[in-house]
Write a structure and sequence with these properties.
Blueprint lengths: L11 H10 L1 E4 L3 E7 L6 E5 L8 H21 L12 H7 L10 E7 L8 H14 L4
Parallel strand pairs: 3-4
Antiparallel strand pairs: 1-2, 2-4
Amino acid sequence: MALPRIQRLTNQADFLRISRQGRTVADSFLSLRYTPATASNGRAAVVISNKTIPLATKRNQLRRVITVWLSERWRHNPNCGFDPVRGLARAQRGLEGLGRATPNGIDLVVGVKSDCAKLKSDQIRVSLEQLFRKANLV
């Protein structure tokens, strides 16, 4: 299940803005970059390099696991920090110091590292959960 188009980052300028202005948290398997959203809702993207994960089938599997986790979080936890519509107190705490409030949620990019290919789906979900806690977004 892919994220709905309205919840996906697609514009190169948005990726550049997030990499320049955003905050980053990472572990051995994933990295998470995030910044206040400029659109009317929070959006997300999953970035997996061909060099990092050479097999397309593995890249697609990882992307699917991550996007399903993100879409479930949006659907089942409306008060989580990256929700595009509702309470954003946690996201504001996670983004304090970036110089502005987050009335529209946050934009985030999940980057996949090569060690992630060795993980099972549930281990990837645990890693995502830990990153979001580390970033104070959950």
